[in-house]
Design a protein that fits this description.
72 residues; mainly alpha
Length: 72
């Protein structure tokens, strides 16, 4: 398999980085992985923000009276 074929398979995610590290230059592997790492970082940021928003919106466990209990 040629280096170009390996690169295409690597870029599409059909093979893992470990499979091409011996054949492709490190700089090329880093270049292909950079967008994947950026996407992972963005996903993690959204997860953190979502968790923080949920914790801010969560009502305290005590002292809350449901609306139904307040009706006559």
């Amino acid at each position: 398999m040629s280096d170009e074929q390996l690169l295409r398979l690597f870029q599409t995610g059909d093979i893992r980085p470990e499979a091409v590290r011996d054949r492709l230059p490190d700089a090329l592997v880093r270049e292909v992985l950079a967008p994947m790492r950026q996407q992972d970082a963005a996903i993690q940021q959204v997860v953190r923000e979502s968790a923080a928003a949920r914790s801010r919106l969560s009502p305290p466990a005590s002292g809350i009276v449901p609306d139904e209990a307040q009706r006559p």
